[in-house]
Design brief:
The chain is an alpha+beta fold and 77 residues long. The protein has a domain at 17-63. The protein has helices at residues 12-15, 22-29, 33-41, 60-69, and strands at residues 19-21, 49-50, 56-59. Strands 1-3-2 form a 3-stranded antiparallel β-sheet. A hairpin with a 5-residue loop joins strand 2 and strand 3 (56-59). The longest helix is centred in the last third of the chain and has 10 residues, at 60-69. It is globular.
Length: 77
């Protein structure tokens, strides 16, 4: 007799994209809100989504990719 294996569906929370808030980004970077606003006006921040209440959110993976893109590479001496 074969043992039946049951597939357990992943939790819904695991299937959703992780979103972060602007205050979380400000704390992570150690910058003022005005600096973030200036960068955003210049188009130098990750893509954000505006919620119906007016707050901004961004995908964590977009923020991480953006941070990686800012890394400087050392030139060989």
């Amino acid at each position: 007799m074969a043992i039946a294996t049951r597939r357990i569906a992943p939790r819904v929370a695991d299937q959703r994209e992780k979103w972060i808030t602007v205050p979380e980004v400000l704390a992570e970077l150690g910058i003022a809100r005005r600096t973030w606003q200036r960068w955003r006006a210049l188009g130098k921040t990750p893509e954000c989504s505006r919620l119906p209440n007016g707050e901004l959110r961004m995908k964590l993976r977009d923020f991480q990719s953006w941070m990686e893109s800012l890394a400087e590479t050392r030139k060989a001496s």
